[in-house]
RNA sequence: GCGGACGUGGCGGAAUGGUAGACGCCGGGGACUUAAAAUCCCCUGAGCUUGGCUCGUGUGGGUUCGAGUCCCACCGUCCGCACCA
């Protein structure tokens, strides 16, 4: 007897408990099976799982479960990226302890993840805020320090004077702190840095080996690393006592087109000038006040200040160039000074035209070689060098090489590679992070904490009632004896950037001994991660830092892998329509002219749960007659209220329907629009499958060759689709097979197809699958059953449908035996009434035959 | 400005240069039911002189026997980066 409805509320927790109890998804380090490490980016424990997590982890879960059924030993772990600002904000706003807040969030979110039935190895769960994680991180940091990859230097930071803390660039909005609203100051602080620039070349070249990564992400990293090859050289000043001005250029070939030199406002020359010239001082102030947003920069005018200084052209001391302070030159790129060649650089031509400087053509534009360059558009294309003395007639590349050779032999310059990538500043004046394991001693200087004293544990008794770093003002924590000389000393009170925590967690998942960060043999077993899945927002920072840490640990001999993630998949967002109620209200204002009342239109975001579509096809606020305006479908966000809570929908539809929705319709790399109708359709399909599985009859007899064929074709296609992460296509195959089974008469073939269908949906709808597997008498758990293998013979059709075209237009189709010879196909095509009608007696000139596919008659 | 992706029914989307619109959602019609829900069946790109024909994958060209797919130019949307010398 079968039950006519599948009840997720009862079945889901029951199977989750069985998986837990049997430790089904625990990865065995000592397996003889082939291994697969499937990993999704671990979440920040903000308090609730959001729908984006559900999509991310569902994809990884389908992959992990499928791999397991295919005979792999799968490592599919989960953990918590648990340090960070939100915990401290909660502490300040709600008076709770960051640790308590974080751990409670982890408990809540873990429950939510369990409700979705993910096949995770919880025995390896880790949380970066616990000493048994961050202590090992401190040890690794000391290893990197010993290897010379960690250093300290003075560096400018964004300082919020009210909150008394350093802000990340992303936390500075229009020059003000995002929390305090105070004007952010640039302040020089001693900061800890990781030498990621030592790996710039490796990280760049390594991108070519990452064939399993999206081209887009590789390109973004390439641009971020920003390798540029050129020459750095000096312009000799005409004033004898002044230092030469060093410039950097990627276009030394245009050196004879130079008509000015420009330095940044922060350049020593500009600063020196400001000391004596109020005008220069004022101009430098003007440069500083300029905005830095993309829009402001785009429209910003090129401005300069003539310093009155002149420098000599390196190839001809008779040519002198004026030196300007310019607002478009950046101090922190290259040397903070450039030479301007207006004819072949757009910024330079705008500047030259404004200040009446010469514009000299030195690269021929086709047959245009006139030294007098007209127009306001610089020519940056290819060409032959002209008007350039010894460079004349050379290609751009040859001229570049020639200039570099002369500069090097003349001793006034050299070829140089400049990177956009900067060393990674990891100091944060925060409590809720990994304490940096160093001690400041007045006698010995900076002293690493001896490894046997690790972990340096965060104190629990901290005070958030005033702004600033609670570690720095803690009464006792920072006072220690110097490990070197034994005299009183102080601990470093900065903590590590949270991106450090996520730069090696995948190693700790693979191997977690108590006394070391990891065991190299364990790393060798599991790494690299076979498939990594997460959001595109981590394309640069996290994914670059993780690559860097892996390479750094490899260089110092701790591990044997260079790249952590063999394949990367960046999934799209879950989106939702937005809803607004528009109403008019009367606003009373009082000002100097008296008080007045005004009608104002107010738009208010409405949650999807409060919106309903009525029979007139319009949308209303539930239980009211208020119209709802349906807005754009955008990423779910609390401010737009277009969110759905995973708990609510799991309770309403069951985990399997939610998982199925996450996989259906949209390709996984694209955005997925959430809809009520869509999830209801998924829930209906769960029930439909349940009824179909209920029709399984072990004793059925008879063969249905066509259904056998459909079955194995579906297996073949769905297997390939899942391997390629084309979940939406795999879903379509499953619908197809379900439709075919529905229509088929009872037979042994039909029962076999039902069993196969059950195996195919098992990774996607694991609870339904276990319930049905038990019902049809399957052996063990379906989570541990073998993935179906198609019979190759059944994948080959014995009949094919041939398209018959006349002059490229479809006129008829014929169903014929597979492999029918060309001549017979031609004869059959010509025999068709529809073809004859389309030909209208015209003479057949040519026939194109693609065997088993089509015939095209050209008349 | 530079770089990238994308543009196909009412919607999400399928389609090794070879039958465009698989599969799902929405919608319409019908069956079952006292009724509803659930379920099942049928239809569902547009137009027309509807046993069939014409048009149709952002626009305009091109290559090809044949183009959603390849090439050129343009339009639009989205994303990333950016006075990077």
Any chance you could write out the topology, listing elements then pairs?
Elements (H helix, E strand, L loop, with lengths): L7 H15 L12 E6 L10 H19 L3 E3 L3 E2 L4 H10 L3 H18 L10 E2 L3 H16 L3 E11 L4 E3 L4 E2 L2 E2 L7 E10 L5 H7 L8 H11 L1 E11 L7 E5 L10 E4 L4 H9 L1 H12 L4 H6 L4 E10 L2 E11 L10 E4 L5 H10 L40 H15 L2 E7 L4 E2 L1 E2 L9 E4 L3 E4 L21 H4 L5 E3 L6 E4 L3 E2 L1 H4 L3 H6 L9 H7 L4 E5 L5 H15 L12 E4 L2 E3 L2 E13 L2 E13 L4 E3 L5 E3 L7 E2 L3 E2 L10 H8 L1 H9 L8 E2 L2 H19 L10 H19 L3 H17 L4 H14 L4 H10 L16 H4 L3 E8 L2 E9 L4 H10 L1 H7 L6 E5 L3 E5 L1
Parallel strand pairs: 1-2, 1-24, 3-4, 12-14, 24-25, 26-33, 34-37
Antiparallel strand pairs: 5-6, 5-9, 7-8, 9-17, 10-11, 10-13, 10-16, 12-15, 13-14, 18-23, 19-20, 19-22, 21-22, 26-32, 27-28, 27-31, 29-30, 34-35, 36-37
Helix pairs in contact: 1-24, 3-4, 8-9, 18-19, 19-20, 21-22, 21-23, 22-23, 23-24
The chain binds one RNA strand of 85 nucleotides through helix 7, strand 11, helix 10, strand 15 and helix 11.
